[in-house]
């Protein structure tokens, strides 16, 4: 076979693993949700900030392996000056860099919010993507725990602004200092115990999944699961396990605070942490946010790499059905805490900071489960059909389209093969267009246009049984002068919106 006869290799269309194309409906729903979150953050006095997707790798603070290409967990590339750059994996490290770089111009406390994509170079799986959106709010330069308490209140207000009712969510609060105090109290305080501490934290994090009995096994020798796989434990003794389980098992903080204080008494930071939790609890209660909304809960661990004080988690407490058909609590949709060391890495001086991050995709899933999205529905465009293809006629159709757009109405002029009029109506039907506008030669001569109410037409064809009913119903097709076109379209769209409201029982 000669080269000329060889068929060119067709390029295969492939979506990269762990990434996803987003549909129009998903984007509209996300915009609606993000708009509501933004409103709450603005009300609290936070201002927007945007940082680039790429940062120099060392600025991200990820402890990367020594290799030619530092790509463990992050997507990295080498710039032409041989400096490593990485796609950001969260929105907090870039904020720390921005604050340090612009420290002299920034007014402290610096209160900012950011929404954007972050990237994780990890193995993708069900519901685990390599690119996802986060929405963060941070206060930099406020050392007092009132800043942490306010973050929790703002999260509670955000949940309610999104239509999640009281009782369906809770903001859970713990403190890294208390956790460190407990570790010290059971003899795991020094640098040489860092590995064992991490195993203890991982075990505590499994409390929701395995219960206190499963966690006790993971704190001790280890745990065998149903399949027979064995997970090695943290190797704690019985007394140590008892103290950890008491700490993470506290249900009523007010009742247990004194006993917890005794457990961490004499440790470097434990008592300070208990005091901070007491202040957060008092501030929240004083502002009207009781434990049904903001709850001190020592089982909150979070990924504690850079947290230095209070940590918090927004949890949705209603049941959903998982892939296996089991009823499970929806769980966490965001979290954060105090990270006083992150900006200081660049500065050589202490810079206190606290922040909160919402997982946008996960929260979107939750709101869809609750039927809380899509209230602000996007109506498809009004379709201006094409009856004649000469330049003068096309100009008139385009003018109708522009007049509707100028009045704030979504509109489009048909762009396909106009010669088969049936195709235009099929297109309008598939697109969900509310109205079709038609003007042939006869209508043009009279200076009028026909309006076809496509929603009403569909309904009437299924409902009307005799001529009397037809006369009383809203007419599915109408003829108006060109001058009245916009007003008539507005009238029909308003009637359709009213019909939809009635159908929803509003």
TrEMBL record:
It is found in: Cytoplasm. InterPro entries: aa-tRNA-synth_II, aa-tRNA-synth_II/BPL/LPL, Anticodon-bd, Anticodon-bd_dom_sf, His-tRNA-ligase, HisRS-like_core, HisRS/HisZ, HisRS_anticodon. Residues 37-381 form the Aminoacyl-transfer RNA synthetases class-II family profile domain. PROSITE patterns: AA_TRNA_LIGASE_II. Its main location: cytoplasm. It holds the Pfam family tRNA-synt_His. GO terms for biological process: histidyl-tRNA aminoacylation. This is Histidine--tRNA ligase. The gene is hisS.
């Amino acid at each position: 076979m000669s080269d000329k006869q060889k068929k060119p290799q067709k390029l295969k269309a492939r979506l990269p693993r762990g990434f996803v194309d987003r549909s129009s409906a998903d984007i509209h729903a996300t915009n609606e949700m993000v708009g509501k979150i933004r409103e709450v953050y603005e009300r609290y006095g936070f201002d927007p900030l945007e940082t680039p997707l790429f940062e120099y790798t060392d600025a991200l603070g990820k402890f990367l392996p020594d290799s030619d290409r530092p790509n463990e967990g992050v997507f990295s590339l080498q710039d032409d000056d041989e400096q490593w750059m990485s796609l950001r994996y969260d929105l907090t490290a870039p904020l720390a860099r921005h604050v340090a770089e612009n420290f002299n111009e920034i007014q402290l406390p610096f209160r900012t919010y950011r929404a954007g994509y972050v990237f994780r170079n990890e193995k993708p799986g069900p519901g685990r993507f390599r690119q996802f959106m986060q929405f963060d709010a941070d206060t930099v330069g406020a050392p007092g725990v009132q800043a942490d308490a306010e973050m929790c209140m703002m999260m509670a207000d955000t949940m309610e602004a999104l239509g999640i009712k009281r009782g369906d969510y809770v903001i859970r609060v713990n403190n890294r200092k208390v956790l460190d105090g407990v570790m010290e109290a059971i003899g795991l305080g020094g640098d040489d115990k860092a590995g064992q501490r991490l195993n203890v934290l991982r075990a505590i994090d499994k409390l929701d999944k395995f219960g206190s009995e499963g966690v006790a096994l993971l704190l001790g020798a280890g745990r065998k699961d149903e399949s027979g796989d064995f997970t090695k434990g943290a190797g704690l003794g019985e007394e140590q396990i008892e103290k950890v389980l008491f700490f993470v098992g506290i249900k009523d903080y007010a009742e247990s605070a004194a006993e917890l204080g005794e457990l961490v008494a004499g440790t470097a930071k434990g008592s300070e942490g208990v005091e901070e939790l007491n202040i957060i609890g008092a501030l929240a209660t004083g502002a009207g946010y009781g434990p049904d909304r903001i709850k001190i809960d020592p089982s909150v661990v979070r990924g504690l790499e850079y947290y230095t004080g209070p940590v918090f988690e927004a949890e949705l407490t209603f049941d959903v059905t998982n892939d296996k058909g089991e009823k499970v609590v929806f769980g966490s949709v965001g979290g954060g805490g105090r990270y006083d060391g992150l900006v200081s890495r660049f500065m050589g001086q202490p810079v206190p900071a606290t922040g909160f991050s919402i997982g946008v995709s996960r929260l979107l899933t939750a709101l869809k489960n609750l039927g809380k999205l899509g209230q602000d529905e996007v109506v498809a465009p009004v379709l201006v059909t094409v009856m004649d293809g000469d330049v003068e006629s096309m100009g008139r159709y385009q003018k109708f389209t522009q007049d509707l757009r100028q009045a704030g109405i979504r509109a489009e002029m048909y762009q396909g093969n106009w010669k088969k009029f049936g195709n235009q109506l099929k297109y309008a039907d598939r697109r969900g267009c509310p109205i079709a506008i038609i003007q042939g030669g006869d209508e043009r001569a009279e200076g009028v246009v026909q309006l076809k109410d496509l929603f009403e037409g569909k309904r009437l064809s299924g409902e009307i049984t005799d001529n009397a009913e037809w006369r009383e119903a809203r007419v599915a097709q109408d003829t108006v002068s060109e001058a009245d076109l916009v007003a008539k379209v507005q009238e029909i769209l308003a009637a359709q919106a009213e019909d939809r409201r009635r159908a929803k029982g509003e």
